[in-house]
Amino acid sequence: MRRALFPGSFDPLTLGHYDIIKRGVTLFDELVIAIGINADKKYMFSLEERVKFIEEAFKDEPKIKVTTYKGMTVDFCKKIDANFILRGLRNPADFEFEKAIAHTNRKLSEIETVFLLTSSGKSYISSSIVRDVIRNGGDYTGLVPDTVFVK
């Protein structure tokens, strides 16, 4: 089975993430969307909300599983028997950052990282921009799937 892990904080899930997931799921038998838990990070949305946003967005896709994890991503890949890590790239800065992580992961394990370029119409969207729009009362609905909403 070709199982891939798509790790992230997804705070919140954006249309950029959605794009990578929808295209990435066609490449693998199973895609595990894994929300990393970092106790030192302050999140806008609770872990439960983030899980729900993703589960609702992909409820009709049987090849997608949603979970949470702590610790190193490569260790979690081993735990769930994932041989691939899926990552999205928006720009050259993303590539440089992700390349260093991919090389490190490859050094630590046999995990291969697969990169997909975010579709051009979504390459400007980031979770931090979405959070800033939300904090300032802007219309965030064109940046996230319909399953993401602010209370």
Automatic annotation (TrEMBL):
One of its GO terms (biological process) is coenzyme A biosynthetic process. Its main location: cytoplasm. SUPFAM superfamilies: Nucleotidylyl transferase. Keywords: ATP-binding, Coenzyme A biosynthesis, Cytoplasm, Magnesium, Nucleotide-binding, Nucleotidyltransferase, Transferase. Its cofactor is Mg(2+). The record marks 17 as: Transition state stabilizer. It comes from the Bacteria. The keyword Transmembrane helix does not apply. Homohexamer. This is Phosphopantetheine adenylyltransferase. It comes from Flagellimonas lutimaris. The gene is coaD.
